[in-house]
Request: fold
Amino acid sequence: MNGPEISLSFAPALHLFLPAGRSGDHTRAVTDGAASLGHVVESLGVPLTEVGELQVDGEPVAPAHVPHAGESVTVGAVARPQTVPGAPLRFLLDVHLGTLARRMRLLGIDAAYTAKDPGDAALAARSAAERRVLLTRDRGLLHRRELWAGAYVYSDRPDDQLTDILGRFVPEAAPWTRCTACNGPLTDAGKDTVVERLHHGTRRTYGIFARCTECDRVYWRGAHHARLQALVERAQGTLAAARS
Reply:
């Protein structure tokens, strides 16, 4: 680029996206005189999915604003809770977020995921086709133009990932209503309809069952139920706090 020079200040949450040697509090960029401010911000490594309000000399502007020489730009972090157009709120997770996907499904949140990596182009295209928020730790994926909506997952720890996503989007939760294996909806199943698929100990001990309407997997409140119930209760607390 060889044009107007501008000064940018980034919110602390965005500093991790900036390349080494760039100051988040005060960095200068030379533009080409035609590129939008959104393009300039992304060229510095910050995905627009993580950007909130943009201000030029203290006044809000749109990402389409074309910077002029000497402008001072403030780049805010995305507002929380974040409003996403359209309903219901649905998600798509990349191949590295399998544990997060299962925990979201446990809460009844529509979370599409496959353990086989379809590639960045296919993920972005599915996000657009199904109007799903793409969750990823791949910064480059969030720069793809065909992406409908996306969010960077800031932690590599599943507990923190779930807390982050729940606090950011505050999705409606309906625990125990979705298959953790395939994301399909669950329906109540009488014991007599699934008994042939159960081990003898399970037949004798449990009487309440659910079945996935898509993959036919059978669920019951087994030995891990207390641990999963504690996870659900923590998540409900996070959602309640985010709504208050």
